[in-house]
Design brief:
The protein has ten helices and eight strands. The protein has 286 residues and is an alpha/beta fold. It has an eight-stranded mixed sheet with strand order 6-5-4-3-2-1-7-8. It is globular and about 50 Å long.
Length: 286
């Protein structure tokens, strides 16, 4: 099925993180989804009764049509996820964004590579951790991450360097304890993700001479049982220009949906796409 439409609305971002597989940054202004493509995504959600819209970037909030996208999807009863880098919520022109997200009951999935400033800043830039903490406090004040509020605030951890993430449950307990004790911050859940050898992270691996050992780590840790839960089984990924992919990692590698399948959101056909074969590559070991 297609339960989730994940849409990359553009590569424009206020940050330039070392691990970014999108290679997003402040200079990617040209690669932004236009209004017509946004509306085609909305049509697909309406016609296929897709239950979740997962908005990513870049910083998705920097797309000028972001608010229109959210309000239209919510009007259809669609659950909306915002993949937020947190620091954008403190930038000029976006300080009312937390209230907008709360008003529309948007779930926030936020990157926070570590609960220690030094480790987080090493990935995301000096001062980014303090800004993230300030943004999390604002979200907590609006009800995000509070038990029983119904406003989910999910944090995302990814490793520093050429290593795999630790056990998710034990790390979540550490995050809860440390963030509550140090900063009085609460959140709903923690996801650990594996850094994919794509784009900026791939370049970093090659520079450090870690590419081959890292790929071997992924292969050695491969769990066939996990294939039952991979996102491409129930999700479709849409690029900023409307092209269709099986996941956003394939999107960054220009691995479009397979031959004979609809290639753009303008040609969306749920029945054909549900029956498609998934395009895979070496990165799928991640």
């Amino acid at each position: 099925s297609i339960d989730i439409l994940q849409v990359n609305v553009g590569k424009l971002c206020n940050m330039t993180c070392r691990h970014c597989h999108v290679d997003a940054g402040p200079d990617r202004k040209a690669e932004n989804m236009d209004r017509a493509t946004v509306d085609q995504c909305i049509d697909a959600i309406r016609n296929a009764k897709i239950g979740t819209l997962d908005l990513t970037g870049g910083a998705p909030e920097m797309n000028e049509h972001f608010r229109h996208f959210v309000t239209q999807a919510r009007a259809l009863g669609c659950h909306v996820i915002d993949r937020c880098n947190l620091t954008i919520l403190l930038a000029n022109g976006f300080r009312d964004m937390p209230q907008f997200l709360a008003d529309h009951q948007v779930e926030i999935v936020a990157s926070l590579p570590c609960y220690l400033a030094e480790n987080a800043d090493s990935q995301r830039g000096d001062g980014s951790f303090d800004k993230s903490v300030e943004a999390l406090r604002i979200l907590n004040e609006l009800g995000y991450g509070k038990p029983g509020s119904g406003m989910d605030l999910t944090l995302v951890y990814n490793p520093v360097g050429a290593s795999l993430p630790p056990d998710q449950q034990s790390l979540e307990r550490q995050y809860r304890e440390q963030l509550k004790t140090r900063y009085d911050i609460e959140f709903s859940r923690l996801f650990t993700i594996t850094n994919m050898p794509i784009s900026r992270y791939l370049e970093d691996l090659l520079e450090q001479g870690e590419y081959e050992p890292y790929m071997q780590k992924l292969i050695d840790a491969f769990n066939p049982a996990a294939a039952h839960g991979v996102m491409c089984r129930s999700m479709l990924s849409v690029g900023w220009d409307g092209r269709l992919f099986d996941c956003d990692f394939n999107q960054m590698l220009e691995l479009s949906t397979g031959a004979g399948q609809p290639g753009t959101i303008a040609d969306f056909d749920a029945e054909r796409l549900i029956g498609r074969s998934i395009v895979t590559g070496q990165h799928c070991y991640g």
